[in-house]
Specification:
Blueprint (H helix, E strand, L loop, with lengths): L13 E4 L5 H12 L3 E5 L4 H15 L3 E4 L6 H15 L4 E4 L14 H29 L2 E6 L12 H20 L5 E8 L5 H14 L3 H9 L11 H12 L10 E4 L7
Helix pairs in contact: 1-8, 3-4, 4-5, 6-7
């Protein structure tokens, strides 16, 4: 079912969303498309499945939808993706830096290659997309850069050194970009989710239940959501709706902030 015209507040805008072939990124892409934005997807996956996703968004929401298979660890690939998006769509109005990976291990045992990959994908890729998007946005006097950070961009947890460091870095990058672009009609903000319900989290629930011999409900309440006072997962639709708001005219004076969507986790 296509979105009603009155709700298509982002019609005419072009959005690039990294890491958007599944999970939170796909939810954000769908929300932006529902609001009328043309979307350029990015991420890994089986080519047939990615084409099904791309074509499905285009058909459901009636917007142009593209895809770039750029590896977010490779600055040259990111440059090609941004250049190809500009050639195909003519502009970039909204950039959502969502691509990310995770690895859990004690600091003294943390694999160096995992550290390098997490910092490259979760942090450095956002630097590269942002520096390139800003040039395009300044030409039109409008831009919305939205970084998907994490509650771990605001607080730490054990065994997640690379992820926490990268997400704290994203929050810092957000503030710098906001200040530098403040007089250009461009905003930059970070969304800091706690646990969001995705297929990846669903797999974690089943895995933890088997490993610890406890029920699904116990895993959700006492393991995954131990730090979230509201004891519920955020949904990809909630993250998508906040992204649409930040991308619109009503958020023109909101910039340089890190917005928790964590059920009260960081209110401790």
């Amino acid at each position: 079912m296509k979105a009603e015209p009155m709700l298509r507040s982002l019609s005419g805008k072009v959005a690039v969303i990294t890491g958007s072939t599944s999970g939170i990124g796909l939810g954000i892409a769908r929300s932006l498309a529902a609001a009328g934005a043309q979307v350029a997807l990015n991420g890994f996956g089986a080519p047939d499945e990615i084409e099904r996703i791309r074509a499905g968004i285009a058909a459901e929401f009636g917007v142009r939808t593209g895809y770039a298979a750029a590896d977010m660890m490779q600055p040259a690939a990111i440059e090609r993706m941004m250049a190809e998006t500009l050639r195909e769509f003519g502009r970039i109005d909204i950039l959502v830096n969502n691509a990310g990976i995770q690895h859990v291990a004690p600091l003294e045992e943390f694999p160096v290659e995992k550290w390098d990959a997490i910092v490259a994908i979760n942090l450095s890729s956002a630097f590269h997309t942002t520096r390139l998007a800003l040039k395009a946005m300044r030409r039109h006097g409008f831009g919305r850069i939205i970084n998907v950070a994490s509650a771990h961009g605001l607080v730490a947890s054990p065994f997640k050194s690379a992820y926490v460091a990268a997400k704290h870095g994203i929050v810092g990058l957000t503030k710098v970009a906001a200040l530098e672009a403040a007089e250009s009609g461009i905003t930059c903000n970070a969304i800091c989710p706690g646990y969001v319900y995705t297929p990846l989290v669903e797999a974690q629930i089943d895995g933890q239940a088997r490993a610890h011999g406890i029920s699904r409900d116990q895993v959700i309440r006492d393991v995954l959501l131990a730090q979230q006072p509201n004891k519920r997962f955020a949904t990809v639709e909630e993250i998508g709706a906040l992204t649409v708001f930040l991308a619109g005219d009503a958020a023109a004076s909101i910039t340089g902030v890190a917005l928790p969507v964590d059920g009260g986790w960081t209110a401790h």
